[in-house]
Amino acid sequence: MGLDDVRMLQFPKIADPKGNLTPIEGSAQVPFEIARVFYLYDVPGGVARGGHAHRALQQVIIAASGSFDVVVEDGQASQRFFLNRSHYGLYIPPMVWANLENFSSGSVCLVVASAPYDESDYYRDHDEYLAVVRGRP
């Protein structure tokens, strides 16, 4: 898996004068069964989140409110995505490093994940991650 597998997903948007609704159902709108949902909020200005890759976990990152950037890399190249629409999500496959940056005031980042939390699934050291994806010992 790599950057070729990172992609924007568009979710259904049910428009109503009283407010819009977007349903997200595992396997119907995301390429996995949803096992965990979490969200980031009250992120101080200038602070980045993420800064890791997963061995097996898949996730979709959504700007439920506000905006932020997601910078992804696979050890060879990187790409920046600007998220600001709550009916779009960024699919992140396993073995892709992700940083979340430039959070607007009051933003909420919603993440749906393919598995429960497991610390052993994380690469938190960037040099270790690069050595693995580049095939070095």
Give the structure's gist in a few sentences.
Helix content is 6%, strand content 39%. The chain contains one helix and ten strands.
Question: How would you explain this protein's 3D organization?
Answer:
A five-stranded antiparallel sheet has the order 1-7-4-9-2, with no helix packed on it. It contains one helix and ten strands, in the order E-E-E-E-E-E-E-E-E-E-H. The relative contact order is 0.29. The chain is mainly β. The mean pLDDT is 95.
Structural class: mainly beta
Radius of gyration: 15 Å
Molecular shape: globular
The fraction of residues assigned to DSSP E strands is 35-45%
Average pLDDT rating: 95
Total helix count? 1
Order of helices and strands: EEEEEEEEEEH
**Residue share in helix:** under 10%
* pLDDT < 50 stretches: none
Tell me the total number of β-strands.
10
> What is the end-to-end distance?
19 Å
Strand order of the largest sheet: 1-7-4-9-2
Q: How is the biggest beta sheet arranged?
A: 5 strands, antiparallel
Record the SSE blueprint.
Layout: E1 7-10, E2 36-41, E3 49-54, E4 59-65, E5 68-73, E6 78-83, E7 88-92, E8 97-101, E9 108-113, E10 122-123, H1 126-133
Antiparallel strand pairs: 1-7, 2-9, 3-8, 3-10, 4-7, 4-9, 5-6, 5-8
